Amino acid sequence: MSVESPHFKTMVLDGGILLAGFDYRGKSANVLNADSVTGWQAIVEQAQSTDAVTAVVLVSLKEGIFCAGADLEQVHEAQRKQTLDSIDRLVTTVHGLFDAMARSRKPFVAAMEGACLGGGLELALACHARIASSHPKTCFALPEVRLGILPGFGGTLRLPRLVGLPAALEMITTGKTIYPRQALRMNLIDGMVASIPSRDRTLETVQREALVQAAIAKARALCANPDSPPRLRAGQRFLAMPGIRALVCGYTRRLVNKRARGFYPAPLRAIDAVQKGMRKGILDGAGQIEKPRLLELMGGSVSAHLIGLFLNGETLKRGVKSLSMAPSSVGVLGAGLMGGQIARLLAEKDIAVALRDVSGGVLAKAVGRIHDAQAPQLRQRVILPSEMRYRMMRIVPTLAMKDMARVPLVIEAVSEKLDVKRAVLGEFEKIARPDAIFATNTSSYTVADIAAQAVHRERCVGLHFFNPVAKLQLVEIVRAPFTSEPALATACAVAKRLGKFPLVVNDGPGFLVNRILSRYLAEAVILVSEGVSIRRIDAVAKTFGMAIDSGRPMGPLELLDLIGLQVARHVLTSLTVLGSRVEHREELLQSMLPPGRAALTFWRGGKENPETVEVIRRCRRTHPEGDGAVSDDMLQKRLFLPMLDEAVRCLSDRIVEQPWQIDFALIHGIGFPAFRGGLLTWGRQTWTPPQIAEELESLSATYGARFEPCPSLAGGSWC
């Protein structure tokens, strides 16, 4: 059998097993689009009509990925042109193709290694069996709701029939990632094998892998003894009964409404598709129920924003310079909150860590926190006890700077004091290898400030993580005027190795994210000092959608509590170098830092902290508009328009080059709501640039010079 396709390679093995290798030409990942679907369709049709073929085994010839799903670049282009005809045709074709596979008397088996996502998982679901590798990169997800859509290649119909309604709804409505051991327990896969992937990804080499051999054996077993369709367990069948099904779907809707707060329509449409689709056959349900909801969501602005953000993230990752690989060992200077989190993440990504601090007690606490942070993954069997031990063994705590002499890169995360950071840099340079790179995780000083007295300034770079390190995907890679290309490239490579988005920003006070964030936090403190309640300020921000994508909506005062008032005050004070627009209420913040006691918080036990309320009462200033209530609309303007102004100033100062970089950074760095497309996107979709300037001028006339608009804002060059 021979099928000409640029994206698939085939060969027939003994016993008539057709081995099909998916290798999308010109892309680093396999995707499903008109070209690849046409190629796979030809293979399926010829396999069906050729007597010499008894079964088909599908494997990826890409390293680390089975299939990434639909080609989102084509989807986004269709959204941009506001025509979804091509998507409609593709979905219809795929429905028919997958149905033909599922109904075939010749078994199809998916041999899955690496990420199997979205349409890629739906392709595997249409196979008669799925065998997965236990490789660390192997994972399964239907992440469509995170892109503002729902599974559109039959996933809302096949997954509930395979794993049961509750598990399917959880995967579909959250985009949750499932790992091989979990997948085996929930019946998502039929088998799991330990397999070492071939470096040379050809059909001749991959057929000898344990994974492919297991898939071939499964195909032969299915040929000899065709299995009956998989049956749900008794409990799963009970939960799929019509009356119970309505209760399960209703419960999931309540969870989704609590989490998404009406901002994201996709999870609710997905629940509707699952519930109604279970009343129909798969092909009819896919065409009549799943597809209309998919196309409706694709035509909306939320999906366009989310897919655009995803593609921007891929652009950042592709932009990492290939001249440098992430080092196999890294030093971390400082074992406090940030240093410990960074060390943990490095160890999880198979990088050896020398964790240094001047205090043995601090080191011991850091190692304890790192150990405890692994416990949830261990309980959920995402990792085995052996992997947890290996992770902990990768971290070597030390009190001696000399133990940093051999590492090619150190990440500085010591206390936020300029003299301490300079001293640590000087101490490191005395023992460092000639090419060693010094990366600072500072949040309030410039790289130029820290490296002012360095012997080798060219090897200094910023590597700014956000708290919590494990959850926030953005890392600012800070380039000072003297930072060398190798130092910059290595920092980017480390961030990418850690699974982060490496955004290169130019050096300056607050870099990008903290500089913009400072206007938001400072204004919240000013509003409090004017008598606006803590609860109301945070409620307005949460109603706007701040941090909703983290699963924990959060207002600016809650964020200040999370950051820590001492750190936040230090950052705000350091950013006064930007001018009077970074005004804050120093006397209020100082009063919330009583000598010899822990800093006061705005919230305590889910309620306004009465001690803080009393401090605010004593420090309260007269409201510029008198004692009358400020409208929620005015509160929103006062919180977010200064951020918009500062973002335009960052573009003018060339901290970054493109508006989309700001939108992306604030979504992934501070939780600006993704459904709005980002700060600048929200601004230009709400007002024209001259209108924004007028709004700020009006605020300035009432509240002071901190609202004076950037001169270039009204011109709209940032749009």
Structure, described:
The chain has 719 residues and is of the alpha/beta class. The protein folds into three domains: 8-304, Alpha-Beta Complex (2-enoyl-CoA Hydratase, Chain A, domain 1); 329-508, NAD(P)-binding Rossmann-like Domain (Rossmann fold), CATH 3.40.50.720; 514-707, N-(1-d-carboxylethyl)-l-norvaline Dehydrogenase, domain 2 (Orthogonal Bundle). 50% of the residues lie in helices and 11% in strands. The chain has 30 helices and 19 strands. An eight-stranded mixed beta sheet has the order 12-11-10-13-14-15-16-17, with helices on both faces. The chain has a six-stranded mixed beta sheet with strand order 1-2-3-5-7-9, sandwiched between helices. β14, α19 (447-450) and β15 (460-464) form a beta-alpha-beta unit. α27 crosses α30 (689-703). The chain is globular. The mean pLDDT is 92.
Considering the chains and any ligands shown, give keywords for the structure.
six-stranded mixed β-sheet, 2-enoyl-CoA Hydratase, Chain A, domain 1, globular, 19 strands, Rossmann fold, alpha/beta
Unreliable spans are: none
Under CATH, the homologous superfamily of the largest domain reads 2-enoyl-CoA Hydratase, Chain A, domain 1
Fold-level CATH name of the largest domain: 2-enoyl-CoA Hydratase, Chain A, domain 1
| Rounded mean pLDDT score | 92
How many helices? The count is 30
Percent strand equals 5-15%
- Main beta sheet, described? 8 strands, mixed
Helix content: 40-55%
**CATH architecture label of the largest domain:** Alpha-Beta Complex
Q: Which structural class is indicated by helix and strand composition? A: alpha/beta
